Amino acid sequence: MVMRRILAAVFATAALAGLGLTGAATATAATAQGAPSYVTPSQCRDGGGTPAINEMGNYCKGGTHNGEQVD
Description:
The chain is of the alpha+beta class. The protein contains two helices and four strands; from the N terminus they run H-E-H-E-E-E. A two-stranded parallel sheet has the order 1-4. Strands 2-3 form a two-stranded antiparallel sheet.
């Protein structure tokens, strides 16, 4: 009987710790997404895109850096 209580407490603690880690990871991901991303024209080309430097906003079109600003 005592062993069941201890085991239940261990599982409850692990579940709550997992929820805390998930919340921290979500908060970190949300912060990282909000930051603007800049790539060089070379990085844009290497990723398979085309730097649209003469267009408004100077963005990379296509590839892995699609939509990121070219600096």
